[in-house]
Structures are given as C-alpha cells and as structure tokens.
Amino acid sequence: MNVKIWPRTAADRGGIACMPMRKNIPEGRDDWNLTTCPSCGRECWEIPMLAVAKAQGARALCTECAIRKGMGV
Length: 73
Hints:
The chain has two helices and four strands; from the N terminus they run βββαβα. By secondary structure, it is of the alpha+beta class.
C-alpha cells in the first residue's frame, strides 16, 4: 500500500486534512476541540491548523478515513 501524506503549503487547494483520532491521542491539548469525523462518526480532535486547511477547501476527516480516501477505498 502506498499513500502519499505531506504537510500542507500555502499554495495547496482542496484535498483531505487529517484530524488526530481520540483513540490514538486520548488527552488532547488545551487548544484542541473534540469533534466527530463526518465520514465515520468516530471521535477526533479538531486542531487549530485545521482552520487553514478548511479555508483552502480541504475536507477534514479522521486519520483512518483520510488514509482510506487516499487509497481510493
């Protein structure tokens, strides 16, 4: 399996942004907000940098859903 994951740049548009999953990081940071993945409904963290990705047109998904979408599943 090959999935390309890279940090966003200022020029990026669209795509998928990964949200850390609560099952992997049970205690989020002070500036993280608990939310749910719009695709699978699992608990994940909305981090401050996500606002930039959303403003660039990215869809925010939990890490597992983002990887599945990247694989075309």
